[in-house]
Amino acid sequence: MEKPYAVVFAGVPGTSKSPLSHYISCEFGLPILNTDQIRFEVREDFRIKDIREQGGIGEFQRRLQDRFSRLLASKVPFIFDGSMDRHWAERKQSFQQAGYDCFMIDMELSREFLIGFYNATNRGSWADTNLDFYLGQHNDFMAKFAGDVNLRIDDDSFADRLKIAADGLRMFLSSRKISQI
């Protein structure tokens, strides 16, 4: 039996991890564990605007962990659509214990690129308030775990990110088959 794998992401919010996830899902027939979907469900179920209100974070974490654990137990390849920047050490350990290989895509976009991107997509006020915090968090992640990254998407490659991600995953899967012979 072939070892299961997961596609995971690193990068700040709003860098197109979800569109990449959906594209890869369609190309490879993989289910998606979507953190944005779980946030939406918690906000709807708790009738709150922000999951940081009224126990929302705890419920979000509970649902995410439950779905993550079930996917790992199933041994089915899948996409984890959410950034690993804050939780990679514990998630990596869970993947390893469950026998998964991980294909990590790093959304390594510059601050200048991101500000232009957020402004163009009407998220400039979010960037003004949050971007430096998340960039710092991502830089800390990269300082510790850059060796776990399989594919880097940067400012120059962003326009071709769908093709680059799919081609990168194909190469990763091809190399796994060769190494298992």
Structural commentary:
With 181 residues, the protein is α/β, with parallel strands linked by helices. It has 7 helices and 5 strands, in the order E-H-E-H-H-E-H-E-H-H-E-H. Strands 2-3-1-4-5 form a 5-stranded parallel sheet, sandwiched between helices. Helix 1 crosses helix 7 (161-179), helix 2 (35-46) crosses helix 3 (56-74) and helix 5 (111-120) runs antiparallel to helix 6. The mean pLDDT is 94.
Topology overview:
Layout: E1 5-10, H1 17-28, E2 32-34, H2 35-46, H3 56-74, E3 78-83, H4 88-97, E4 101-108, H5 111-120, H6 124-145, E5 151-154, H7 161-179
Parallel strand pairs: 1-3, 1-4, 2-3, 4-5
Helix pairs in contact: 1-7, 2-3, 5-6
Give me a quick take on this structure:
By secondary structure, this protein is α/β, with parallel strands linked by helices. The chain contains seven helices and five strands. The chain has a domain at 5-31 and 78-174: Rossmann fold (3-Layer(aba) Sandwich).
Output mean pLDDT: 94
Cα distance, first to last residue? 12 Å
N-to-C SSE string, H for helix and E for strand = EHEHHEHEHHEH
How much is the radius of gyration in Å?
Answer: 17 Å
Low-pLDDT runs of 5+ residues are: none
Q: Can you tell me the CATH topology of the domain at 5-31 and 78-174?
A: Rossmann fold
Structural class: alpha/beta
Number of strands: 5
Strand order of the largest sheet: 2-3-1-4-5
Per the principal axes of the C-alpha atoms, what is the gross shape? Answer: globular
What is the architecture of the domain at 5-31 and 78-174 at the second tier of CATH? Answer: 3-Layer(aba) Sandwich
- Beta-strand content bin: 5-15%
Q: Which superfamily, in CATH terms, is the homologous superfamily of the domain at 5-31 and 78-174? A: P-loop containing nucleotide triphosphate hydrolases
Q: Bin the helical content.
A: 55-70%
Number of helices: 7
Class of the domain at 5-31 and 78-174, according to the CATH hierarchy? Alpha Beta
Largest sheet: 5 strands, parallel
